Amino acid sequence: MKREKRSNDSVHDALSCDDILCDILLWLPPESVFKLIIVSKRWLSCICSYAFRRSYLKRWKVSSHLLGFFVCNSLYLGRPRGGLRRGKSEPALPLLSTSKEGDDLKYSGILKQLGYFIDSSNGILLCGRHPKTYYVWDPITKQKHQLPRPRVYFEELCMAFIVEDSPDEAMCYKVIRAKCETRLDEVNNVTIETYYSKTRTWCYSTLTCTSILSLCPWLVATVVRGAIHWFAVKGNIAIYNPEDEDRRIALIKLPGSFDFDERVLGESSEGLLQYGISCKSGMEIWILKTEQDGETSKNSKWTLRYKLNFKTTWKKNPKLMTTFSTCSKSKETQLLSFLPRNSESVYIRTGDNIFVCHLEAKEIEVVHYDGRGSSILWDFSRVAPYFKPAWPYSSLCQDGQSTT
Amino acid sequence: MASSSSSSSTQVKKITLKAADGKHFEVEEPVAMEMETVKSFFVGNEDAMKDMVVPLLNVSSEHMPAILDFYRNHSEFRKRTPPPPAEEVKAFNEAFLENKSDEQLMEMIMAANFLNTKELLNFLTEAAANRIKNKSVEYVRAFFGIENDFTPEEEARIRAENEWAFDGLDED
């Protein structure tokens, strides 16, 4: 910087040191810091940098923003031979957009090239068609990876998708396919195949469990702090941590009643597994707490965090109730999904309407989305909110980095 | 004999620091050792005598009294049992920043960075952040004396790529 703005040069010097600039910016809350990317090129690359992001996320909770909801019709995705075919006019990857960014994504045409929606992690999409074709797509850099063909064939399977934070632009992720045992004879292991973006290969392994288990097919895992959680049959969840080298899969009994219509898993604000179930009368939200029990063994315990009656909750929101005439339909209210790393609110729906329900205050807000006209087979579809982490990105950063 | 040894132990050793402009400051040893830069001058440097003058190349004498005052007070706060009430620390910190211009604040941040003292640096960077919090981009540029080096097209592109970041109000 040649131009003199101040009498004293030291101010420029102070700011020419990236450490000091970072130290100052680390004190600013998210709503204040991100718009400063347009101060100058150096500030842009500093705020977008991996080093700053790492330090910042240790100090601040940065929320993600909702782009919309992906509809994943399980009739098509895990379609048995001779099963139901998707109509020509029906998009494979419908997005119920709730934002401008969602609209842009929807009309960009990319969604037509990805097959069906499977999962999203850290804003990155995993899509494709079982059992051979999988794509990973980054909406920010627009990078699209087609995974090589998996090496083993599973009649029925479930998936997991983990995106890791990486210091460079390259996506870093794991895709796991796990076999769901359909045989009636009882097995205490699970066969999985893991694709790791760094090695670019599928890797076959067997996980063992101390008890007999079978995973529920065609679902995706909920990943909490690197650990994969799959629903297993007979009211269990199976937990596997890919970082553990002993290749074990643990089984934990799910709490609450088995008489439910919907059940979902998610991550709580404090980074614990949460489990929600809903039936006609209401919903329950449970949290799994793990305590170190002695030297080696861990003790996991479920605690009921919220229990809500749909009818009384709707009565607390009379205005919405009349607008959407949900009074008579209150019995149809269902739990839809958790929000990322959030235990304060959940998504619920009645009919075609999606709402966010604030659990503590029992307040309900409507979520407006685009695509109401499309017919959604709710009973056969998973409707998954699509969140993108709120972190600035600029294509200028790549070519701008060296200029400072 | 006995009296001379006791008098030397009660008398706190002093270390002489030399600011960038050559001015000397006599500082009690524990206070001087709050600065990692001074500490590392002596530690592992067997030849360094305690009566040597430590040059502080990046610290102007203008800020030395205030900085030393900060160390003295904060090390006293840390030692005190029971710990001082939060209001007392807050009152000291507020008084410390009062009448300091933005430029003086930035110079002191530079000094704290050079002296390598986490506590002072954290305190000052937080103060600087508070002064630019919720301010407009224009204000921030003026505060730090930064030239906008984006072309209007580039700025528009960044805004478009990160629309969500600019959703809120663009106040003062």
Whole-number average pLDDT of chain B?
A: 84
Shape of chain A: globular
Give a short account of the largest sheet of chain B. Answer: 3 strands, mixed
Domain count of chain B: 1
Return the structural class of chain A.
Answer: alpha+beta
Oligomer: heterodimer
- Across the major sheet of chain B, the strand order is 2-1-3
Structural class label of chain B? mainly alpha
Description:
- The complex is a heterodimer of chains A (404) and B (172).
- Chain A has 404 residues and is of the alpha+beta class.
- Chain A has helices spanning 10-16, 18-25, 30-33, 41-48, 50-59, 74-77, 100-107, 310-315, 318-323, 395-400, and strands at residues 64-73, 95-97, 116-121, 124-129, 133-137, 144-146, 157-164, 172-179, 189-196, 201-208, 222-224, 227-232, 236-240, 250-253, 262-267, 273-278, 282-292, 298-309, 334-338, 345-350, 353-358, 363-367, 381-389.
- Chain A has 3 domains: 1-62, no CATH class; 64-253 and 381-404, no CATH class; 272-373, no CATH class.
- Chain A is built from 10 helices and 23 strands.
- Chain A starts with 9 loop residues before the first helix and ends with a helix.
- With 172 residues, chain B is mostly helical.
- Chain B has 9 helices and 3 strands.
- Chain B has a 3-stranded mixed β-sheet with strand order 2-1-3.
- The longest helix of chain B is centred in the middle third of the chain and has 16 residues, at 64-79.
- The N and C termini of chain B lie far apart (70 Å).
- In chain B, 21% of the residues are buried.
- Residues 1-9 of chain B have low confidence and may be disordered.
- The A-B interface holds A 1, 3, 5-6, 8, 10-15, 17, 19-20, 23-29, 31-32, 34-41, 43-44, 65, 100-101, 390, 392-396 and B 103, 106-107, 109-110, 113, 121-122, 125-126, 128-130, 132-134, 137, 140-141, 144-150, 154-155, 157-159, 161-166, 168, 170.
- Chain A: Residues 117-325 form the F-box protein At3g26010-like beta-propeller domain.
- Chain A: It comes from Dipteronia dyeriana.
- Chain A: Residues 18-53 form the F-box domain.
